[in-house]
Amino acid sequence: MRSVRKWLYLAAVLFAPAMLSGCFPFSFLGFATPIPMQPWVADRIEERLVNRNDSRTPILPPIPPGHKSFCEDPPDRAEILRAMPRVARGVPYIYEEFRDDIEFTVEKLVDKVDPPRFFPLIGPAQLHHCHWKCTVYFTETLDSMYPFPFRAKRRRAEVIYIDKDHLHLCVSGPDAQQVTAREMNAVRP
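Above: the chain sequence. Below: its structure as tokens.
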């Protein structure tokens, strides 16, 4: 009995390091091992889900005859900030970067409507080009506390070009235009 215990103890001593190292092929710790996740991963996932419509082209009702369509929706502050290059991820107290005192100017560069043409999955439509130039003025702060305290502030300007193109359906005849516009407005929330 004593030799059996001795052999089991010896087997356990030799077998335990293999199980704990993860090199043992029958180790089931792999699926339950906690994996550290960086704090910005959740933010990136949320950005992709919340701002899904930023890159989509909306389809609007037809332009009534005799009217000119204008670009009426300039980019808002949130859209401009999302289009800006991201602030560098730093290491706290070693290198940190901040943007403060943010100011915006928005200029319309292009406002034109192309002639009607056929778009697959949509049908005949006109592409309305709306291009905006957004200038963002901000104070950039570079901050470090280690190995020696350091803070640098400078005023910066960043120019961002945003295209907000959209499609206008084309239908022939005033009655068909009214019906199409009524149907599209009924669907809109």
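The chain has four helices and six strands.
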